[in-house]
Design the sequence.
């Protein structure tokens, strides 16, 4: 189990802070997202937390609600190993479901064709170009399309998502 981990939820600030806060468990910090692109927003989370003094930061997308905790633990373990500066969890669609780093750099978040099947490949290329030692952990799915929603129907690893999906008649 993860110990000594602080949790934050990055949110789009357009008046949704109270709503987001009401959905989160106690102890989860809120952080407004800043930046025009997904890459900018992720970089700014790393910047804010690493500058604040955190030694390792992991950003996990909200589109993998059934991700096993072991994958997060594995990412932190890999990041803690000598020579690893970045860890990516490959998504089955060519992107990634998590990124963890212990260095502050914008390089892996620039020049990426976001929301395409080339995201992981391009991120790894940018990391190599920037001499960033990146490691991969096990692949997992994420939820991007209506067809992906079936992965959550009845999924005991994501009970809230499964309950919500089960309540939607239009998807049954």
Sequence:
């Amino acid at each position: 189990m993860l110990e000594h981990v602080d949790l934050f939820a990055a949110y789009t600030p357009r008046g949704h802070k109270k709503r987001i806060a009401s959905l989160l468990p106690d102890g989860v910090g809120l952080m407004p997202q800043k930046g025009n692109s997904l890459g900018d927003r992720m970089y700014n989370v790393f910047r804010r937390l690493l500058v604040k003094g955190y030694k390792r930061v992991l950003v996990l997308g909200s589109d993998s609600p059934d991700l096993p905790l072991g994958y997060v633990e594995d990412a932190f373990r890999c990041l803690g190993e000598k020579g690893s500066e970045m860890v990516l969890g490959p998504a089955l669609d060519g992107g990634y479901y998590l990124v963890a780093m212990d260095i502050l750099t914008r390089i892996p978040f620039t020049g990426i064709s976001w929301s395409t099947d080339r995201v992981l490949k391009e991120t790894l290329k940018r990391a190599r170009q920037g001499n960033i030692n990146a490691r991969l952990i096990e692949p997992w799915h994420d939820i991007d399309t209506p067809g992906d929603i079936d992965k959550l129907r009845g999924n005991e690893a994501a009970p809230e998502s499964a309950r919500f999906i089960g309540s939607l008649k239009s998807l049954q």
Q: What stands out?
A: The chain is about 30% helix and 15% strand. The mean pLDDT is 92.
